[in-house]
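Note to self: user wants both folds in one dump. Writing first protein now.
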Amino acid sequence: MKIQYMMSCPARSAAPTETLEDAAAVMADYNVGALPVVDEGRLVGIVTDRDLAVRGFAAGLDAGAHLVRVMTAQPVTCSPDDELAEVLAVMGRRRIRRMPVCTADGDLVGVVSLADAARQPEYRGEAAETLSEICRPETRHGKGERAVLLAQPS
């Protein structure tokens, strides 16, 4: 199945100069976990709820900081003509749940998510497999290894 038949469009996006607070409000209003960041019609990044929490607030930024400070620049994208199976494979390898869909010129036309794939009956198995790959533990010690933290006696 081609991405164009199952992507969410139009995609709600944000400008790099919008604030963390603005993005959080949009995510809450639309019940989404990521926003493509667009400047003059071109995709320049993506920001997730985790980016807001970890790169933003946990790093000491205030709610008025601009998205450009926490977004992932040059995110992995796909084309409307790409096949879902190929996109799921990339999502699994890159450990991402949402992918902007862009034209060859870099114009944002939609977003495809792992949830979009799971809604396609013939791709539920592949979507579950991709989610399993995304959720596999990864530590600084190496992919797939679990770090064990031992409590130090006081």
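First done. Writing the second protein, which came from a different request thread.
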Amino acid sequence: MAVAVAGHWELSWSSPIKEADLWNLPLRDFGVSEWWMWPVSGVRNNEQRTVQLFERDSLRTILEDNGDTTKVFVEAPGFFDFETVMLNEFEHPDDVLYIFGSAHFNPTVANMREDDVAVTIPTVEGKGVLWPHQCLVTVLYDRLVKSWQ
């Protein structure tokens, strides 16, 4: 079972090390094997980052590098021309690349293939205003809990 995560840097222009720490600890604690981010921020791997960081210029490059791996796009609730599955109803694949956009960028619309899945995290208000690192923890915790059942 290989779990990988891809995301878009939110704070890389001002606080890349702080943002890297927000991502790295949950990745480590939930057993993620690879961490992919775009665009290149210059954050270096070090001994405190136990999950290998791969930076690429674009999401498209990350998708190409991960070939036939099942891709799960995590999306806020919205009015899209594609269907999403609510996280509480989602069955997590064994080998997967979870893709998180940013608070200002929706990666699914231009990059989703026919076999890919879009998952929505339900919220009380149905607005889905979560930062990507918050979505990351929610999705990985859901995966862990469902694996125990």
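Dump finished. Worth passing along: The beta strands are 3-8, 34-38, 53-55, 70-75, 85-86, 96-100, 117-120.
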